Amino acid sequence: MTASTETYAGTYSGSILDRERIIAKPGFNRWLVPPAALAIHLCIGMAYGFSVFWLPLSKAIPVTDPACADLNLISALFTTSCNWRVADLGWIYTLFFVLLGCSAAIWGGWLERVGPRKAGFVSACCWCGGIVVAALGVMSHQLWLMWLGAGVIGGVGLGLGYISPVSTLIKWFPDRRGMATGMAIMGFGGGAMIGAPLANLLMNAFKTDVTAGVWQTFLVMAAIYFCFMMGGAFGYRIPPAGWRPEGWTPPASKSTMITTKHVHLRDAHKTTQFWLIWLVLCLNVSAGIGVIGMASPMLQEIFGGRLIGQPDLTFSQLGTDQKAAIAAIAAGFTGLLSLFNIGGRFFWASLSDKIGRKNTYYTFFVLGIVLYAAAPTLADMGNKALFVLAFGIILSMYGGGFATIPAYLADIFGTQFVGAIHGRLLTAWATAGIVGPVVVNYIREAQIAAGVEPGPSLYTGTMYILAGMLAVGLVANSLVRPLAEKWFMSDEEVASLQAKTAAANAGPTGSFGIGKGGFDGKAALAWAVVGIPLIWGIWVTVKNTAALF
């Protein structure tokens, strides 16, 4: 053992959650870190699938008081005798993503100080604890308790869990920044593909004449998620100061868009580039999340009877049974979009390593504008396959935008505070979570109020407005430039910030035998733990989308 590794291997007597306890030791395989991140992201990604509980909860009370017809949002929060409306429950979904963005922004700096293990631990406690509180809300029929548990406490867990692996993965994979973050963040897109069918199975198992089986499902899923998230949190390791992959040296970058220096968290939001990238993410997400929110009704109202071999029937002319049939097909469409969403997170983020982050976003915006502008024509043609393919590509770029943005930030601001900077940037997601659905839904309502019948024309204006939003994003992306030298920290300031890690590994920079190896037995086992549930979720989704074609 060399002097440097002898110094490195010294013991640390603090808490097992402390950053100093998770500095990787010689022989550690960096390919163990992505499955740890996936274990957390696949659990918190169930936030996308929570709507599976809305209908069962809206029928939790068999017989309701006639006075429940006058229920409003405030009275719904405290009623124990009236069923909740789907709209009342849907606020939990809004709380998820508002709290995700806010908590990531507020505690991003704390995460950089304490490390990903402690952040992952707190995330598991908040997300799973919030679901338990929500179960108590269902048992006592108190909606405010569900909002507090799942929406607020769970939302904080979402934010911390979402950003916990970002800077760690970028530091472990300086040679493949996009691919590394894509591997983890694709888990957030895939969480609902596992969680939603699992929830259905559990609710059916627990359902009786007097209960919908929701609170029991909450408790079981909270226990499962807690085990997985703890495994992920304790699987995190961070590289020592100065580490780089063995045999890899930073290439002389031909792009001025990739810096080798670092911007302090306190200065990042003062730069024009931060707010331009904020706008880029906000507009890309606003357009995509609007589609997610209207995917099912959009397909049904545009194609109507064509979905069931009755091309002469519009949506308004369909009978109750026919509408139920096309609703099932539209559910398959929503599932198919989820597959494109998760696949796009890995594909586009990996591609960004080859063509650059700015060019990747150029692709998102230009291709997105073309597809949104062409959507009304495809709808008028009645070409179901091309229409579905167009929106599949759009949703792949929606997911790809999430996975590419951490690497974009690392290119512009450096890696020292990228996790915290990413946390602050996620306020763009919180904003988009409100703007996108509101814009899309109000346009649709305005069209209906103007007398437009359900059909392709009902969404024509929406598609052009979404294309316009992407055009603004295209301009914002084109204005992103390398930062001026004044924003970067000095080498002395960076060395001071890295002092604790550097002290644990005195010696020359290099690989120290850390991060070696590829897909060995231990890595294969770690990937199987997260990969098998993901494959099951994909299989269920593919099976359910078969009816679409």
Automatic annotation (TrEMBL):
Q: What are the UniProt keywords, alphabetically? A: Membrane, Transmembrane, Transmembrane helix
Stored SUPFAM superfamilies? MFS general substrate transporter
Q: Does the keyword Nucleotidyltransferase apply?
A: no
Q: Which segments constitute the Major facilitator superfamily (MFS) profile domain?
A: 37-485
Q: What is this protein called?
A: OFA family MFS transporter
Q: Which residues cross the membrane?
A: 31-55, 90-107, 119-138, 144-163, 184-203, 215-236, 274-295, 324-348, 360-379, 385-409, 421-443, 463-480, 524-542
Q: Organism source for this protein?
A: Shinella lacus
